[in-house]
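[job 0417] fold request received: WD repeat-containing protein 36
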Amino acid sequence: MAKDKETSVKKGFQSEELASFGERTSLYAPFRVLGLVTSDGSPNSTGEVAPKPCLYELGIAPFVVIPIGRCLQLYDGRTLRLLSLSNPFPARITATAHLGRERLVVATERDLFIAEQLRLCAQIPNVHQGRISGLFSFQNGVFVSIDSVERCLRIFNRDNELIGEVFFGEDFTPNGRIIHPPAFLDTVCVGSEQGRLALVDIHRGRVTQTYNFSAFGAVTALAESPALDIIGVGFQSGSVVVFDIRQSRVIDQYDARTYLPVGAVAAVNALCFRNDDPQAFPHLLSIHAQGTLCVYDLDRQRLLEIMDRIHTGPCRMACFYRKEPILLTIGDDDNRMNMYVCDSPSGVPRLLKYRAGHRAPPTRVRFLGEDYRQLISSGSADQQLRVTSTISSYHHRELSQLTQRIRRARKRMRKHRKENLDQEPDEHTLEDHSEQELLLPPVTDFAVSDARRNDPNFANLVTCHLGSADVYTWRYEQNHRFRHILQYRGDAPEAFDSSTATCVSISTCGHFAAVGLSIGHIDLYNLQSGSHRWRITNAHRPGGVAGTAFDGSGGLLASVGTHDGRLNIYRHQTREKLIEIRTGSPSLHLIWSAVSDLLAFSCADDFSIKVYEPLSGRCVRELNGHTARITDLCFSSATDGRQILSTSLDGTLRTWDLVAGRCVDVLRMTAAPTSCAMSPKGDFIVTTNVGRIGVYMWLCKAYYRGPAEQGNLVALSALSHDGANHEELWMRHPVRLPDLATRWHPLDRPELEVIPVEDHRSGCLSLTIEPPEDGHSGVVFSNQPETHWLLLPYLDELRERNKPREHAQSTEKELKLRPLVSGLDMNEANRPGSCTAIDRPSNITVTGR
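[job 0417] inference complete; emitting structure tokens
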């Protein structure tokens, strides 16, 4: 052990540096994650409740702060547009509260932070020894925090000083549910896991009264009502109680188990009272564990309406805007935020707008669009096909799975029902089916092309789905399905086979789509008419087709099989088989580079990648290194094609140099990657990962010519004298996935140091970031993205490169014919002593100085 430690120190790697060695030497740096709206989709092994979002108003403008992981997201409450992101906090956020104006108090596991405009300005460390589960602020700077492990409530003043503590008994475990009854001065109402409520006077620091509802289970939701002394209490059993805390009596009680289906989880997640006109609409709304919304009429004491599955899972928050009939609900598992408006005479809410992302981990991602600043991701269990923008979250959208025909049929049916016409329903109305039944099966493979992007008669996106032989066409510019479904229909009834589509590819011209089937056939379709062109029978038997790909010119089609170990190349127009190569390995994926004209496919038996030259049929490279199944392949940028990126279930993303014939980078992630894609410019790569619903962006350091990637290639290719392998260090220390906010420095992250304020007020702390002593202090405090400051060392080189190569020189003949500004005499230039050079004012503005 001592020898190993001495060896690492000799090589220059201290023990504390090994944890970040993979990030220091990788070609890629974490940049940000896309597609997260209300949840990060990370597995919750402890069963802890997600932190409640924070809604506040500045004037008449509402804002919503949603904690996701270690970051905060600020949304406009009117448009649901993302306004700002915070820098990552040291740990996962467990609670938030609004202190007034743009100041927030944020809690992690044991520490408290004060943030202004989502920027840290103070820290109160080690106040709690357990776990902070709830926060509440009185809008004047005074706030309280709840520790569910220590069973205590701590009170802080506007100077962030701890001024009081209230400890609960053994029979009262606070769970973070806390409200302030408006009629009670300096008093909060706290819920517990035992089904009890406690009124705490924060001025005196003691519990004034307790209420026992243990028969209903744990308290899971609390809400203030417009009426004084009245609150709403939701319980684990599904019961909703309207309670008068001053008179200690139950005014009304509802049990959702009598309205929900048998076996449904009835726990109440959120409660809210309508406050715009409580006399005309005395309504109480409750949202339950499976996303069911119940509307209760408090005057008539009955259930008014049930709306099923407004969220697919629990709800983190539901609240009405102040004095407005607008309801905002924020889900947890479904990564969705809904806005409803109650404008009907009955007061039942209807959906106004929403913001959503993937609610299950995607398994495939690709770049698309003219500027390649958009991503398309699919393959998840949520049965969605989504387009994600790398620039603005406002352009995130889901492709509709309804065609124009289905839309027209639905519109006709609604018209017929309104007019009470007794006609048979259209088979395409889809009114009597659930939302999950209307969606297509999960996407297993898709292909996208921009060749016919501006032609509305051509589909530019083709998808094949799990357990289906039908291949669906789309136009992602119009955000909906295209009119054609690619189906093979033979001449005889026995021609209808029960196979499924396993892979798909689009030709370079964008006119044709090749579909591989599980029984070994290959079909070609026209994307304009949707007609079937030809079929290659038994192209790969036994087994099915694992992948198809067109070459750069669109004249050749290649395919590999899942079991037969063959690589076939056909002439596109005539179906003539040009080359048949015996690879000897079952395949998983197939890609064809249009730049280098090389074929690459992954093997299922030895987890290797084989690269072939299609014309000669020779295997030019065999790349070994993965230890588990390869999940995706892609070539590097469209102008290069010299590298291959591969992801595997061993948790690594490897970069292979085809010229050197070896792996030049290993990026081990904390979650195994399932797909990868590189932007055509080569500045970013994106990955999807197991168990994560976001799309993760990584910065390519080589694109910006930074020094980090120079030593990387040397470090991996050469072994040190003592035999230490750098690749083993990369495999030993995984790199953390990117956060919502940009990570300013990919190599070193400065530690946060808490320094007391100079006026020595007890408990009042400030946050100071000390710059590291490595010459990067100017970079640490920059607000610019990483792509901006990485180019700073090369500004002089860029100026030299942008200068004109040759200066314009005027000949003597041109100077004689050039007229003078002072006069029109052409012979004046030939007189002795005359000026031949003309001083002209310059209209060129030099920038960058």
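[job 0417] notes: The mean pLDDT is 80. The chain is about 10% helix and 40% strand.
[job 0417] exit 0
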